[in-house]
Amino acid sequence: MIPHFERFVAVDWSGAKGRRHRGIAVAVAEVGREAPRLIPPPNGKAWARAEVADWLLALPGPWLAGFDFSFAPPFLDRGAYLPGLEAPRDGPGFWAWVDAQCGDDPDLGAHGFLHGPARPHFWMGKADGEKRRFLRHRRCEMRFNASGGGKASTVFDFVGAAQVAAASFSGMRLLHRLAATVAVWPFAPAGERTVVEIYTRAMLRLAGGPGRKIRTASGLEAALAAFGSAPFPAAGVLSDHATDVIVAAAGLRALAPEARWWAPVGLSPEVARTEGWTFGIAD
């Protein structure tokens, strides 16, 4: 049975070094059709990752929250997350292991892990050889690519502005913190307070667009309307991070009541236990 959620949260995450990150954006949509609203950071300038966790845990439930990072690395292609290392073989165990490997990285950062014992698994430039040797993908990413979604990133590419390695492994530290009191789907069944992985590009495609960033008020209004939402009362220019989470929050609200999104093709018990799934990828 799908829980009845009253709030729908979308978070654009960041794995950057430091304690505060302008790349983090948070939006929440309430039940109904009112436009999602942006949540300002506590200091009015930029969120810390730990502050997002604290805010979410204090949010009255029931709620569904989507985070834009990979909840686990590929596992099924090689029968291990990081072949050669004694890492756990399920998502929650792996999150705890990553958290323990991160040392003194501030604010749930993961650079200590990425440059530590796991370093040989990441492509950080030409010195590591051919990039294609590192391009491993999960089952949900393969399905997204096969459906015409484009080329999903891999968590083992740690080069350039589009890389998702730092955000994903810092996000796994967040999941380790949340999992004691919050259901992290599909590693656990959905509950009154549930966290899911989202891919904002997939949400933009589900809104009827090509999946590219929204940079105009008319584009944002069209995407929200596709999800049955009232227009966002924009005042000034919104960043890509802001438009991503505004649309994703409305998308979560529209998709969550539909059973098909909770039972996508390819989500076997083994996939759910090891790799997880991106909510909004079903066909």
Overview of this structure, please?
The chain has 283 residues and is α/β, with parallel strands linked by helices. It has one domain (1-283). The chain is 31% helix and 9% strand. It has 9 helices and 6 strands, in the order βββαβααααββαααα. It has helices at 49-58, 91-101, 111-114, 139-149, 165-178, 200-206, 217-226, 240-255, 269-274, and strands spanning 7-12, 25-30, 37-38, 63-67, 183-184, 193-197. It has a 6-stranded mixed beta sheet with strand order 3-2-1-4-6-5. A hairpin with a 6-residue loop joins β2 (25-30) and β3. α2 crosses α5. The two termini are 21 Å apart. 46% of the residues are buried.
How are the elements arranged and paired?
Elements: E1 7-12, E2 25-30, E3 37-38, H1 49-58, E4 63-67, H2 91-101, H3 111-114, H4 139-149, H5 165-178, E5 183-184, E6 193-197, H6 200-206, H7 217-226, H8 240-255, H9 269-274
| Low-pLDDT residue intervals, each spanning 5 or more residues | none
Number of domains: 1
Strand element count: 6
Give the rounded overall mean pLDDT.
Answer: 92
Range of helix content: 25-40%
- Beta-strand residue percentage: 5-15%
> Taking strands numbered 1, 2, ... along the chain, how are they ordered across the largest sheet?
3-2-1-4-6-5
Shape category: globular
Q: Determine the structural class based on helices, strands and strand pairing.
A: alpha/beta
